[in-house]
Amino acid sequence: MKKIKFLFFLAFFAVLFIGCQDNEDDFPTSEKPTLALGSTEIYGAPSRKFEIKAALADDLGLKSVRIQIPELSLDKVIAFGTEPLVTAYDLSYFFEIPADRGTSEAFKIKLTLTDVSNNSVDQDINLRLDGEFTPPAVAMDTPKEGAVILLPSSNIMKVKFMVNDDSGIDFVHVTCTALLIDDLVEVNGAQSYTFDKEYILPRTDASYVLTITTKDKFVQPNTGTTEINVIASNDYPAIYLCDQPKGTNLTTDAVGVPMYFHDKNGQDFEFKYYADKDNKEIYFLGQEGDFAPHCFGADGTNLAYGSSVAPIKLPTKGYYKIKMNPKALTFSFEKYTPTSKVWADIANGQWHDDEALRRPFVSVCGGGIKDASWDTWNGWVQTGLHLANNPNNPYQLVGEYTLTGTMEATFTGQWWNPSWRLIKNGIATMSPGENGNAKYPAAPGVYKVIVDTELERAFITKK
Amino acid sequence: MKYKFIWLFIAVLCSSAAFAQITVKGSVKDKTALPIPGANIIVKGSGVSASTDFDGKYTIVVPNKDAQLLFSFMGFTTKTITVADRTTIDVVLEQAGQSLEEVVVVGYGTMKKKDVTTSISSVKGKDLQTMTVGNATESLQGKVSGVQVTGQGGPGAQPRVLIRGISTLNLSTDPLYVVDGVPMGNSINFLSNNEIESMDVLKDASASAIYGSRASNGVILITTKRGKIGKPKFNIDLSNGFQMMDNPYNMADGETYANIMSTAGHSDYFPNTGQYRYRGQTTDWWGAGMRKASPVRNASIGVTGGSEKNTYAASLNYYKSDSFYGVGGWERITARIANDFKFSDKVSVGITLNPRFETWGSPGNWADFDKIDPLTPIYKPADQLNGTENEYSIYARSPSYVWNPVAAVARYDDYTDQYNLNTNAYLQYEPIKGLVLRTQGSIEVGDKTQSIFKPDFIIDAAHEKEEINSVQRKNTTNHDWTWQTTATYTKTFAQKHNMSLMVGATMEEYNGNDVWGYGEGVPNNSDLMRELKAATKNRSSDGNSWSSSLLSYLSRLSYNYDGKYYLTGSFRRDGSSKFMADNKWANFPAASASWRISNESFMENTKDVINNLSLKAGWGKVGNQGLPDAVYQSNIGQGYYVIGGEVVNTSFPSSMANRDIKWETVEDVNFGLDFGLFRNKISGTIEYYEKTTKDMLFLKQFPTSSGFPENARMWTNVGSMKSNGIDLILSYKDKKGAFSYGADFTFTTVNVEMISLSADGEKLYGSDSRTLTVEGDVPGYFYGYVADGLFQNQTELNSHTDEHGTKLQDKAQEGDIRFKDLDGDGKLTDNDRTKIGSPWADYTMGLNFNFAYKGFDLIANFYSSIGNDIVNQNISDLYNAASLTNKVAGLQDMAWHGEGTSNYVPRLSRNDDNQNYIKFSSLYVEDGSFVRMKNLQIGYTFLNQFGLDKLRLSLSGQNLWTWTNYTGVDPEVAGGDANKGDRVKGAGFGGWNYPVQPTILIGLNVGF
């Protein structure tokens, strides 16, 4: 009898226990959810993301939406929370087509929407890879980015560029708010168009931003915008020293080429420069990115202007102070012996908590540089970032870095002592110096690094 | 025959003195008529003694009929018998009231174990001496409940000892060691096992509060051996053996290494073809630099004896443990000479001299022998040598950037010598019965010299060189003194009221200074030139001195009624030089009570079963003042800044004194039950404790608005933590005929939790932000990302996105780790880190067996830690192919190399773009539980043979077996870097730590 009583109570409490358990999945029956697609046909392209848009809704609550493209290895489930229940959701899901897919391929995207009552609905979307997604290409003839228009010579700004697009050009729109420019050209589907027009500039120093907007005629139109910065000036705002032969692409370096001036008084510019060999040839440029339009060279002992000028030759290897005036067309140079501190034997540096046992080394802290961080200890342990003395110039620290994108840097020893912060215009200011690390866009790759402690400049050029 | 001759010769020499002597023979047995071998028989007042053989028989010569013989044996009641006219005396010894009559040291006094109301565990010296270890606390492991000992391998390493877990976050967790009444700091490396008579561990605050401000981590009281009445007894103890060091990892050979690197994409070094050409080219780095067995030696010779007026004990102890590099190690020579004089029934004095010498130093780069690539030869090929290199420059450089470890060991010259002398003396006077006045003084002087020489060498001009040699020497001296005076009055009123009152005062002062010199450009690297005076360049020096002192008043009142109801109260008032006027003094009270139920009349009928049953409870407050000596000072820092283009040596305010700083206080309650069953065949103690730490000491940063630099810190009292747990010790012992056996089981749990920090929601990071301490959880838990297996295919990669398709790990590839987005924000950020493990064990256990049959004895000790996690930092070194260091053999198969091949070891990659190893994740966290056989010893004892009282031979193995799932070097992993304040916050990080090594020893013990 006792046994029966025991079994009864055991069964009773077992039922009670099971009955009291919280079963979260237990929702009442409800209507099927609704799935409204943004489009039943989507264009994509290899190596490009496309967007899946849909409006999802359920009277009780959504449980999950599953997105599947088996051929492209996509099987994504987005689960919705239950506290509170989600009754409506705007799906916006991006997915990148693998690069190895062909533009003629097409796939089905399967969407499965399930609500908390486990009702499901499916819908398919057609995905085509023959989409075109690049806006019309703009090739600037003039003005170039960063161009300087010398107002005493001319106050006309000639704007000329070519536009191309395989699917046809819808329109070209040129605007500049400061100059009240607002030119809209309807191209009506032509695959190529040339814009050529001149504008009159006020004779006052100013900077302008020229905005060029283009749109193509593809099913899903593509729009692109290009901005050109132009400086109109009665004087040269800056002069650069270029030691590269004419025709060299001056935009492949990360920083330092051509070299920004050291001092300026009116239109008297002064540079400090290290000629690494006898008869070093240099030019002066009125802009950073190109030899044109303002290029200065030598005409005997005078400064010459024009695209065909001869270079100035620095007779012997060594440090120079160079002065020039682009308006008076004068220049002069003198060799000098630096007196700044020589950071010798940095390759034999030693990190040590005890200052007495410390020996200086120079590495780098920063971003966009492989293996670098903003920790000086990391700078020490990453020996690949250590700079070495240039055996031919005690004021130059040299090395090789791999840049991964836009870079910023401070060349430094233990705990920022010593350190040279890379600020704007390629200036490597020695601590305490100026604040604010500048960011320099750079194409990924291996670069040669020269830090000239006498010039307080950094030169980081593609290897 | 030879022995007979010797005895005959001695007998002739002594014949003139032997005329009136009587030779007494007999046997000593227990109640069951079993002989007791090794029992002591002493002629009272004469110093003449003998001991029984295996059959319990003895022979002793007494001067006359009035002589009294004392028969004694451990665990039995001593019996005194007058010889009278007998020449044969057979004695039956009765078992004592077991351990309850044993005396326990309680701090500034002793008590019978049965009278103790607090939590104290005791271990006899003979139980510690079963192991040959450098630090005596290592042999404490598993023998005492509530004490967690984590071994640290390496000559001279100091084990981590935690008594009932941790009670501090930023200060030392080591207990206070008190040797013969003198506080000796937080280490007993200087003490030989052979010098120890007993160790008593004060675990709860009601026991340790008598040591006040230094007792929060518990107190270990060590009593050294003193003289005993009787003829001189010599004891020689020798053990010799070797420690074994097998490579913990099976590293790749040359061909496998090249394959791994090639697979990982190091195509510039290892193109993806033809790795077979490396076949047979492996350099056996481990074999070249590591000794598979390194010797360990222990020798001790001692003598004890004396009369009723004067007893003495002297010992000379030697210990040496070689490092497994073949150079360096640890060597210790200590002597202890103790003399006690009893001038009258009222006056006694004693003095102990303890001179010591230690020398240590060994390389620490054993990891490099595994990490260096196996294709680099040890020496440069002949065609790379030009004959001008010095002896340290002939070694080859590895492209792995690991410095040639054989060369590093050859260059090693960093040794420390330490000399100490401790003098400890007392005077005791008993003017009236029951009143004992005692004053004791101790002076400790020490001198430590560290000498370092770094020779110049050029193995690689860019990466591995020291262009100029350097020499440095640091000398530290200390002189400390303590003086303590107590008065103890013991009285029994009306036969049932037993009372004891102790009052006293102590003074302690600790002084030290150091001086350091450094120089470069020693003319050559010869041994004779390694002196500062020989340095020709860049000489510099430094030096400092420090001092701290403590003045204390203490008292303890003990009362019991009829051996049933016990009350004990203690009070200590400490004044420390470390704190400023407002908080210089602090009080540490404690109270405890016990009820000895087994002495109640209603328990009379249960005596045959329950011979001891006692309930106890205690409360107390203790402190921790273990912070630097001069925290009450504002400090000036030094640094270099560029001013006007020149680097200038500058000074700046680096920290400010906190006038309100005070002691870290631990308040503790303890409840316990002592029991003994079946005439103490089964005995044990179970205790529950709860500790609360208040006013915890933190080194906090100033607000930057204060103008102090960012690294300026100030000690301040904030936060609290709590811990609780259970201690259990269970013992069983019995004897069947000549076979005796016993077992002890210890069990300890510790649960610790932070109650509050300096601000709500504060997060205290430790160990490079890999641990976190927050309110409501254990301190210093492992904090990182959750590694959710590996991406097995492209579909898994594509689905690891946010709700808009943005990849959470945009650089991940198949075979990389999938990290969990715990906060569900669609990004993998620092906020997705969580608790991924705890360094604190759920419980620790010890199991100790002993068996004896006639002359044979066998001891086995096991220790276990269960439930703790360990960060295996070596995973990156062994599996991450981003560097050119060597990897484990078979890694190319272990690592992911296709769907389903691994869900643990990521694919081989030279870039680790997914940060598989850079992100601190659960990949590194492993179960750190282990069971270790600490000691297995078998011995055979000859009694009264070969002309000796005792001869024991033993063979023992220490740390022979370890069962664990931890894949790192050794599961005994202790605290973090105390110098970084990471002792607690950095606990549980295993890496290339010097392992606790298996050791085989043979021992010889001779007594005569």
UniProtKB/TrEMBL annotation, chain A:
The protein's name: Uncharacterized protein
Organism: Flavobacterium aquicola
TrEMBL record, chain B:
Major place of residence: membrane
Keywords: Cell outer membrane, Membrane, Signal, Transmembrane, Transmembrane beta strand, Transport
Alphabetized InterPro entries for the sequence: Beta-barrel_TonB_sf (IPR036942), CarboxyPept-like_regulatory (IPR008969), Plug_dom (IPR012910), Plug_dom_sf (IPR037066), TonB-dep_OMP_SusC/RagA (IPR023996), TonB-dep_OMP_SusC/RagA_CS (IPR023997), TonB-dep_rcpt-like (IPR039426)
Domain of life: Bacteria
Localization (cell): Cell outer membrane
Any one GO CC term of the record: cell outer membrane
Signal peptide stretch: 1-20
Pfam families cross-referenced by the UniProt entry: CarbopepD_reg_2, Plug
Domain TonB-dependent receptor plug: 112-219
Bilayer topology annotation: Multi-pass membrane protein
Family: Belongs to the TonB-dependent receptor family.
Name this polypeptide is given: TonB-linked SusC/RagA family outer membrane protein
